[in-house]
Amino acid sequence: MNMLKSALIGLTVIGITMLSPSVFSAAQQAPSEKVEYYPHGQVAMAFARGATLAQGKSGQAIYQVLTAHRDGPGEVEIHTLDTDIVYVVEGTATFVTGGTPVGARHTAPNELRGKSIQGGVPHHLAPEDIIIIPHGVPHWFEAVRPPFHYLVIKVR
């Protein structure tokens, strides 16, 4: 499956995941101001730049759709307000959640970063996998096999 098709399927799955709890209360909410559509060319350009594809508000939730690429491991992340929903488009990685971050420091309001995680749970991510990381949970790409492309939906 090509990267763009996989990304679009991922967005659909993630959208359903985000909206499922609110389906029963949808009649009580005012409709969104507009429908947003991102054709595959625009999605591909966002992946090429590693850019934010979309951001907005749905009811009380604020969301962002980010395109991302990794060639190697990164820093541990801890978001005190945001839940991350990750959808793997291409490549594989070992992604660690939980445990104790090593060398955690504040890098921005409500954001911490660290060098590694001790005692976390490793997850072996592959194309079309989804992992949801609730706010406050340390998470880290410990190992990446490039090319590694993924979507991140941030929900606050």
Number of helices: 2
Number of domains: 1
Total strand segments: 11
The CATH topology, please? Jelly Rolls
The CATH architecture designation is Sandwich
User: For the record, what CATH class applies?
Assistant: Mainly Beta
Q: Could you report the average pLDDT, rounded to the nearest whole number?
A: 87
Roughly what fraction of the amino acids lie in strands? Answer: over 45%
Task: Output the keywords.
Jelly Rolls; 156 residues; 6-stranded antiparallel beta sheet
What is the element layout, followed by pairings?
Layout: H1 3-19, H2 40-49, E1 52-58, E2 61-70, E3 76-79, E4 83-97, E5 100-102, E6 105-108, E7 111-114, E8 116-118, E9 121-125, E10 130-133, E11 139-155
Could you describe the 3D structure shown?
Strands 1, 2, 4, 9, 10 and 11 form a six-stranded antiparallel beta sheet that branches. This protein has 156 residues and is of the alpha+beta class. It has a single domain (3-26, 38-155), classed as YhcH/YjgK/YiaL (Jelly Rolls, Sandwich), CATH 2.60.120. The two termini are 31 Å apart. The relative contact order is 0.25. Helices cover 17% and strands 49% of the residues. It is globular and about 45 Å long.
